[in-house]
Design a protein that fits this description.
An eight-stranded mixed sheet has the order 3-2-1-4-5-6-7-8, sandwiched between helices. The longest helix has 23 residues. The chain is built from ten helices and eight strands. The radius of gyration is 18 Å and the shape is globular. The chain is of the alpha/beta class.
Length: 272
């Protein structure tokens, strides 16, 4: 395998939106597509239904991320497309105590996405594309934050360290039962996705500062409310409809310079 081969990686893609993204990329992306899953058995089963490669990845396990990074660097010399799809949400009827829900949700959706980005963004090749799967809940939840929090999250100069501090503060506030008093909305999932959307903006800004000539485009997106295990059977969108925006962003042609650092829904830039 030549290190010049192109490669697209989709995190946690053995089912749902991630699996459908892999299926679409297998048809449209000129290169190898890597399906990842925490559970190797489930991942191998999913691979049998398509024709991608498989690599184990648990986005909450630093060693698992580093192992994938080493594989991609050695085999491909980098990454052309990264879709950070992995995420979770507790069901409304779930009886897990709210503080634990807040911690687990944040650990997966925000800190897991950040950990993968920390290892793999340096490997993104020129003209590479990065798509962070967020949610319209990030926009709706931001509007429910206090004016002070809204101002910080919308700032063009917010740093990654400041964002990390805020995400940790939400979890602590939730544990102490004071999150709403402190200006947060009452949704761990929504706040975790605010984190993903804002992190995307920060990383896009860093790419502009450090690798402008490489024309790497990085965006957050919302697939919509899609009929998956996570969203349930009453969601209005089919999985096929849900993958349109993530795949569109992943396959933005060379030479295109936007969108970049944006939140995209229905293939259009949304202002939060």
């Amino acid at each position: 395998m030549s290190s010049r081969s192109r490669v697209a990686v989709v995190t946690e893609s053995n089912k749902g939106i991630g699996f459908a993204i892999v299926r679409d990329l297998c048809k449209k992306f000129s290169g190898d597509v890597i399906l990842t899953s925490r559970n190797p058995t489930l991942g191998q089963e999913a691979v049998k239904k398509l024709n991608p490669l498989f690599h184990q990845l648990d986005i909450t396990d630093p060693q698992s991320i580093r192992t994938l990074r080493g594989f991609l660097k050695e085999r491909y010399g980098g990454v052309d497309v990264l879709i950070n799809n992995a995420g979770m949400a507790f069901k409304i009827a779930d009886t897990t105590p709210s503080p634990i829900q807040a911690e687990v949700t944040m650990q997966t959706n925000f800190f897991g996405t950040r950990a993968v980005s920390a290892e793999l963004l340096p490997l993104i090749k020129p003209q590479g594309r990065v798509v962070n799967v967020s949610s319209m809940m990030s926009v709706l939840s931001l509007k429910k934050c206090s004016p002070e929090l809204q101002q910080i999250f919308r700032s063009d100069t917010i740093t990654e360290e400041e964002l990390v501090g805020l995400m940790k503060k939400f979890v602590e506030d939730a544990k102490n039962g004071v999150h709403q008093k402190e200006g947060w909305p009452n949704t761990a999932y929504g706040v975790s996705k605010i984190g993903v959307t804002v992190l995307s903006r920060i990383h896009a800004r860093q790419l502009n500062e450090q690798r402008k000539a490489d024309n790497i485009l990085l965006n957050a997106c919302c697939p919509g409310w899609v009929r998956t295990d996570m969203a349930g059977p009453k969601a209005p969108k089919s999985v096929k409809e849900g993958v349109e925006t993530p795949v569109y962003l992943a396959l933005l042609p060379p030479g295109v310079t936007e969108p970049h650092g944006q939140f995209v829904s229905e293939k259009k830039v949304e202002k939060g």
